[in-house]
Amino acid sequence: MVKILFVCLGNICRSPLAEAQFNDLTAKKRLSQYFEVGSAGTASFHVGDPPDFRTVKVGLENNILITHLGRQLSRDDFKNNDYILVMDSANYLDVIEAKPENSKCDILYLRSFDPHANGSMEVPDPFYGTINDFEMVFSLIGRSVKGLLDYLIDKHQIPKHR
Ligand code: 4NP
């Protein structure tokens, strides 16, 4: 079982989308059994909150139901996960700072798996943007989670089903 956690700032926009899109992809490929997937925010201001309505809308437009409730990254997350995938450099710095010294958890930029990233490592924060920004974020997360899945299949020798 490969355990992965998507992390953003508020855990109501980008990381719940990434979690749901990764789960959707592995379900379609019949690979769900190999993964345990979650999401969390570095900040506490949306703990217990449902996803932003624009996150839900863009998910539904793509037949993905997003029901995650916001939670904050905790010390245990570093013990309970093999990978933490961050959305931007602020998340990266916050996660690195919170990482216990003995943790073997890999901290990676989700966007590093986007073949069309053009050198950018960031999944931009759409919170102060429009629905168009959420749609743009949805498509770049989609490309990134595909790249991530291919990387994990290869690295952990997960059999590819037909
Ligand atoms: P997220 O977006 O980190 O992708 O969930 C944000 C959500 C809330 C806020 C900022 C970013 N906020 O300032 O409340």
Describe the structure.
- The protein is of the alpha/beta class and 162 residues long.
- The chain has a single domain (2-155), classed as 3-Layer(aba) Sandwich (Rossmann fold), CATH 3.40.50.
- Helix content is 40%, strand content 14%.
- The chain has helices at 14-28, 53-61, 75-80, 89-98, 131-155, and strands spanning 2-8, 35-41, 83-86, 106-109.
- The chain has a 4-stranded parallel sheet, sandwiched between helices.
- Helix 4 (89-98) links the parallel strand 3 and strand 4 (106-109).
- Helix 1 (14-28) crosses helix 5 and helix 2 packs across helix 5.
- The radius of gyration is 15 Å and the shape is globular.
- The structure holds 4-nitrophenyl phosphate (4NP).
**Text of the CATH class:** Alpha Beta
Mean of pLDDT: 97
Could you say which small molecules are bound to this protein?
A: 4-nitrophenyl phosphate
Largest pleated sheet: 4 strands, parallel
N to C succession of SSEs: EHEHHEHEH
Count of β-strands = 4
Please give a quick description of this structure:
This protein is an alpha/beta fold and 162 residues long. It contains 5 helices and 4 strands; from the N terminus they run E-H-E-H-H-E-H-E-H.
